[in-house]
Amino acid sequence: DEALARGHKVIGVSRTPEKVPTNKPNFSIVAGDASNLDSMLSIIKGADAVILSVRGSGPNNFPEESLDAVASKVFIAASRRLGKDAPRVLHLGGGSTLYTKGVLGLDARPSTEGTAQHGLVWGHWLALQNYRATTSVKWTVFCPSGGYDNDGPRTGKYRTGWDEVLTDKDGRPAGISQRDMAAAVIDEIEHPKSIGRRMTVGY
Fold this sequence. Notes:
single chain; alpha/beta
């Protein structure tokens, strides 16, 4: 919605496209699978930017099986295949991969291997490392600082940072609404400042 409101042409991708309404100008929906290279290539070719917002566990809940980790590797392979014509990717990552006063959030809140939560949060970490290991892929990993409010308003006002959690005046994680997170993502597409690194967004 944020991208459409700014006049961009948007292609949505879903494994079940028939469930997505398509009654908005400049919006279309196609069937696709972020874990499949052929599917990724067929959809992203010709795009200016790709936003990866995925979630899913593998059969054993291992981090390397998570959809975030797998999708990052698939996009990297697709980008290398397309070469100079490859779009940039903005991958929405997890806030637990941020640091607080130098302490990694994942270390501060340990989880048990084999559980869905462990696989998902460490899958975000693996995705970030996959991107960091590349030199030819145009990537940005977006992470919220603190809570992610799905129903909060769009204020258009937010702060950005890099690897440290943004905090409020009381030292608590700043948090961000879904709408302002979307605004930050589209702002970064329109005015690139963070290609080749991770950034965080919060109030």
